[in-house]
Specification:
Chain lengths: 322, 460
């Protein structure tokens, strides 16, 4: 099987909320890149119609799965207030993987979705996921846009990022230095995320295609700390380079940390804590000072680029008037 | 690293620029009590709310034989700030109301005071419900050591109880928690009533779509009640919420702003430029260019034209880290038309005291670079030059990738040349966070710029 448990050559998708503006564009562009991965769309009230390029729309996921039994993954684009409904519908329909692209899922709904997914053994990614891309295998969501080949080269890095935009920016930064990507995925920055770094570490440790992990984290929550704990427990021994954003906010007022939040998280959540815990987690981990130092971290950890002819050193401006 | 020396914090970046998910609405105690506590029957002291001494306050204090006057502020540690006053007479109450309304509580002006019946407190618990990123679900936090700042409680005496993501926690589950924290040692007689009260607190948290509901103290109080059978007064203990710190989920099904109004994280009024920028997106939903804020202290000398949430955040952070002083923040995205870019460009460049400009974004998947930079920004620069308002002492660094980047950067570079603008233009070959470093080094070399003391030594 080519690919990961999240996205592989057998992945077949139903897009929930497929007739919306953003979703229908993603369907069109994804089918142009990897024809045949998206089998159906669901929009209650628009069953019986089709969207370009000939993807049938159903009222319900149940109908879609009955007509296309190989569907195993839902890609959710519905408005935030309907995300819980759509995610639970996907689980009830027997789907094993659910990507939530929608932003601003109510936190209460996110906790309900996570509880249901855990009980049923379903993998939920997001909310606020940018999606997932495995070069040469497939693409879930808008990640990489119309032509991901500009930003992604095939290779061995796995990029996991809370920030959607930085997922692609990071893949491209590494491509410019000759490194390719095995899988890039936006896990989203929601308080309650369906999938976090440590949820994937056991699989990535086993998968020989993964040569190293590039982790982009942010202030808040404890998902980066949990990644550090997983490394410390020996669950991930491959090279790991991490960048954690938001430390500069620690000296500022108005950052969202309630008393009780801080108590429950036991001092976790600060960018400085995340960096320290990761740096101390094991010899296979490097924490980048600046974001672009991720390149140096991966080099220092002995990961070889796939393309050694790539340009190194100072970047000359395209245009200069000073 | 860090944003600045102690006592001189970097200005607050309004959270919408970083991460809209972090936004939330905090409630004043009187709002939480009159809505959430009342609806879900969380017991609270009798009270009146006022903004000045009045007959209602006088009558209340007379009838209750005194009271506690508390400032309605969002900031914590009111007691330490002297914003909670015990009063015995009507005159004392009137004075306390006036004094507190005139106070600044850790920099915050009270919106009202709450005059509460003084409770006969026997013990103080700490109680909170919030979400844990460890269990990815709700957690009830309880301690017998309430009443003090929660940070001062011995962590070993604070107990976290994860609960399922459900609308209700059964009272028996709460009783198990109360036994575990030692509540039943002294107050076993009221454990049933206490468990019902805390179950109501949880229900209130869930139903109101709060991100956090904290009660400190949740007090064991002695109350005099009338015995139903004998009709005689008897003393009884019960649990009562003597405070309410509630943070509602900004993403809630019913947006809390609709019920409680907008809450600004800022202590100052918006500037004219911030107001003008808001108008850009108001009647035109094509892309987003009007998300513009200035530092709380209005300082800074680097204009920041940044694109995309994650890209904007990492660029702003790196700018501070290398010792640049941002004068404004933008988060442009979603392929805005040239006209919007024209307007925001003029606003960004109109901030007084600028020394440099950083135009920085990752690789856009949708936003057209020829339209945003090649047309919108170029149009603004050409017009500023014509109007004689173009500051040619500014140094520019541009870093951008995305659709039509070749064309967009070429048009911008030509505009730089014809207008005598000094700058360097990069595509996505340059890692995004090297752009602030390059701008800093150019400013130091050509303008004698003095970077902030927080600049990191290594990394360039």
């Amino acid at each position: 099987m080519k690919g990961t448990s999240l996205l592989n050559e057998n992945t077949r998708l139903v897009v929930v909320g497929a007739t919306g503006r953003e979703a229908s564009q993603v369907v069109r562009e994804s089918e142009a890149l990897f024809p045949g991965m998206i089998l159906a769309g669901v929009t209650p009230g628009k069953g019986g119609t089709t969207i370009e390029p000939d993807v049938p729309i159903y009222h319900t996921i149940k109908e879609a799965v009955a007509a296309h039994p190989t569907i195993d993954t839902a890609l959710i684009y519905v408005p935030a207030s309907s995300v819980k409904d759509a995610a639970l519908e996907a689980m009830a329909g027997g789907l094993k993987t659910v990507f939530i692209i929608t932003e601003h899922t109510p936190i209460r709904d996110a906790s309900s979705i996570y509880a249901a997914a855990t009980a049923k053994g379903v993998r939920v990614v997001g909310g606020t996921s940018l999606g997932c891309f495995v070069p040469g295998v497939g693409r879930i969501g808008a990640i990489g846009g119309k032509d991901p080949s500009g930003s992604f080269a095939p290779g061995g890095l796995v990029v996991l990022s809370k920030s959607g935009g930085l997922t692609v920016t990071t893949a491209e930064m590494f491509k410019r230095r000759g490194y390719g990507v095995y899988m890039a995925m936006g896990i989203g920055g929601d308080v309650i995320a369906g999938t976090i770094y440590s949820d994937l570490m056991d699989e990535l440790q086993r998968d020989p295609h993964c040569t190293a992990l590039v982790m982009l984290g942010e202030v808040g929550g404890s998902y980066e700390e949990q990644a550090a704990e997983a490394v410390q427990a020996g669950r991930f021994t491959k090279p790991l380079a991490a960048f954690i954003g938001g430390e500069f906010q620690e000296h500022q007022e108005g950052v969202a940390f309630g008393h009780a939040g801080a108590v429950v998280e036991r001092g976790k959540g600060k960018a400085s804590t995340k960096k320290r815990m990761l740096a101390e987690a094991g010899p296979n981990v490097r924490v980048a000072t600046y974001y672009h130092n991720l390149l140096d971290c991966i080099e220092e950890l002995g990961v070889r680029p796939e393309e050694t002819a790539a340009k190194q050193g100072t970047v000359a401006p395209r245009y200069a008037t000073i | 690293m860090g944003a600045g020396p102690p006592g001189n914090p970097a200005p607050t970046v309004r959270r919408s620029l970083h991460d809209a998910r972090e936004t939330s609405v905090n409630l004043y105690e009187h709002e939480a009590v009159s809505t959430i506590y009342k609806k879900h029957r969380v017991p609270h002291a009798d009270h009146v709310v006022a903004t000045e001494p009045n007959d209602e306050v006088a009558r209340f204090v007379r009838e209750k034989g005194g009271g506690v006057v508390k400032a309605m502020v969002l900031v914590g540690k009111r007691g330490k700030a002297g914003a909670v006053k015990l009063v015995k007479t009507e005159a004392e109450a009137a004075q306390a109301v006036r004094d507190i309304m005139a106070m600044s509580v850790w920099g915050e002006k009270p919106v009202a005071v709450m005059v509460c019946e003084k409770a006969d407190i026997v013990a103080e618990l700490y109680c909170a419900v919030t979400y844990s990123s460890e269990t990815r679900g709700p957690v009830i936090t309880l301690s017998m050591e309430g009443g003090m700042d929660v940070e001062e409680i011995d962590p070993a005496r604070i107990h976290n109880f994860p609960v399922g993501a459900a609308a209700e926690v059964e009272p028996f589950e709460i009783r198990n928690m109360l036994v575990e924290i030692g509540f039943t040692k002294d107050y076993g007689a009221i454990v049933r009533q206490a468990s019902m009260t805390i179950a109501s607190v949880y229900r209130a948290f869930w139903a109101s779509e709060a991100r956090m509901l904290e009660i400190n103290p949740l007090a064991v109080v002695r109350r005099t009640k009338t015995d139903r059978k004998t009709g005689k007064p008897v003393e009884a203990l019960e649990l009562m919420a003597l405070d309410a710190v509630v943070t509602l989920d900004d993403d809630a099904t019913v947006p809390p702003q609709k019920t409680f109004g907008e809450r600004s994280a800022y202590k100052r009024e918006p500037t004219q430029r911030e107001v003008d920028a808001l108008l850009i997106d108001r009647d035109d939903h094509r892309g987003k260019a009007g998300s513009y804020v200035e530092p709380e202290d209005l300082g800074g000398d680097i204009a920041m034209m940044t694109f995309g949430g994650g890209g904007s955040a990492v660029t702003i952070e790196t700018s501070y880290d290398v010792g640049l002083r941002p004068a404004n923040f933008t988060d442009i995205g979603g392929n805005p038309p040239a006209e919007k870019m024209y307007r925001i460009s003029k606003i960004i460049l109109s901030k007084p005291g600028l020394k440099g400009v950083l135009v920085c974004g990752g690789t856009a998947s949708n936003t057209r670079i020829d339209v945003t930079l090649g047309e919108g920004l170029v149009g603004a620069l050409d017009d500023l030059a014509k109007e004689g308002k173009l500051d040619r002492d500014l140094i520019w660094v541009v870093r951008r990738g995305g659709p039509e980047v070749e064309k967009g950067l070429k048009l911008l570079a030509e505009c730089f040349q014809r207008n005598g603008i000094q700058g360097r233009v990069f595509d996505s070959e340059l890692p995004i966070t090297q752009a602030p470093l390059i701008l800093r080094d150019l400013l130091v070399e050509h303008r004698g710029y003095k970077p902030g003391p927080q600049a990191k030594a290594q990394g360039a």
